[in-house]
Design brief:
This protein has 348 residues and is α+β, with helices and mostly antiparallel strands. It has 7 helices and 20 strands. α4 packs across α7.
Length: 348
């Protein structure tokens, strides 16, 4: 085994929720990802929709138990010293599949090796091993310090907007109450709290601090938007404001999820999206599956939805052709990976 060291760190990550084109819901999950040699470990797994066991929405006792497990303070949960590194974002059932690895000590060092995809108690390294990943040797002090910091901070400090899972509520402001009610219901279904209001006047600073984003309906006048922004600024709160593009609930959900993602670009798989009536320009930082969904509004104000692309893209910038009929007139594109969502207006 190589004696070369890899660096170990942690970074906030998310699996964005959404209302999918087929009507299904995808639940929002905030978690802490493992960063190996400066890159999220999940990025090495090109087509995996998964979260680490360090999810921010689990009870504190379970979160603490997961951290102590990775510190090897408890017995391995699986035979042969194997630990779950990434699991199903919707449940904790191993039958759904999980990425596992042997975690062991070598003197003061910690080693992660023999990564595999596992669906029962025993891993088949020949059939399901990730042969291009690891082994990784981490310096013990760096490894322990990173994980111990999570125990010091807890699973989420509501005063810290950079901690995963904090301020996972949004404030919805607009004139179309029926639309806002549908949007709020969709957001709550995927795990994001939502409140509806006309303005932010008189709202206590503590309550304003609980919001991770503000979403404006497109009919909200500029003066009203400015007043809401002033209320947050006066409270010393930096909150992203979303200008709703169209009265389409899945589109507004995607815009909201994008606003809640405060990670730097190097920690995102999808970093840029532009669109014309002929093609979409997409930039990705690592090999990953990307889906493109088109939303358009016709002359009778009816909404049309169509999946226009679903495939694996390698790192770099890509031009993806789209069906002109799918983006005719007023249209928008939503691009998704397992960890990022972007929205673009189709320009003519």
């Amino acid at each position: 085994m190589s004696a070369e060291y890899a660096t170990f760190g942690l970074a906030p990550a998310m699996r964005p929720g959404g209302v999918l084109a087929n009507g299904d819901f995808q639940v929002h999950r905030d978690f802490v990802d493992f960063v190996v040699d400066g890159c999220p470990l999940l990025f090495r797994l090109s087509d995996l929709d998964a979260v680490s066991p360090l999810a921010s929405d689990v009870p504190p006792a379970i979160f603490t138990a997961q951290v102590r497990s990775l510190l090897l303070e408890t017995e391995a949960p699986l035979p042969a010293g194997r630990y779950i590194v990434y699991g199903c974002p919707d449940c904790a059932d191993l039958a759904c599949g999980a990425v596992t690895a042997v975690i062991e000590r070598d003197g003061e060092d910690f080693i992660w090796r023999d990564f595999a995809w596992q669906t029962d108690e025993h891993a088949d390294l020949e059939l399901n091993g990730y042969h291009g990943i690891g082994p990784f040797r981490f310096r013990g002090d760096e490894y322990r310090t990173a994980l111990a910091s999570l125990l010091d901070a807890g699973s989420g400090d509501e005063s810290d907007g950079d901690t995963p899972g904090t301020r996972r509520r949004v404030l919805l402001i607009g004139a179309r109450v029926a639309l806002l009610a549908k949007l709020a219901a969709a957001l709550r279904t995927i795990g994001i709290g939502a409140d509806i209001a006309q303005d932010a006047d008189g709202v206590p600073e503590g309550e304003l601090r609980s919001y991770g984003a503000v979403v404006f309906g497109r009919a909200v006048p500029d003066e009203q938007r400015a007043a809401v922004r002033r209320a947050f600024t006066a409270a010393g709160i930096d909150v992203p404001c979303v200008d709703g593009l169209a009265p389409i609930v899945p589109l507004l959900v995607a815009q909201t999820e994008h606003a809640l993602d405060r990670r730097p670009s190097e920690q995102r798989r999808l970093t840029d999206l532009t669109a014309t009536g002929e093609a979409a320009e997409i930039e990705v930082t690592s090999s990953c599956r990307v889906t493109l969904t088109a939303y358009r509004i016709d002359r009778l104000s009816r909404t049309h939805t169509e999946d226009v692309f679903d495939g694996i893209l390698e790192p770099g910038r890509h031009r993806v052709l789209v069906d002109a009929k799918a983006v005719k007139g007023e249209a928008y594109l939503v691009a998704r990976t397992a960890g990022t969502v972007l929205v673009a207006v189709v320009r003519r």
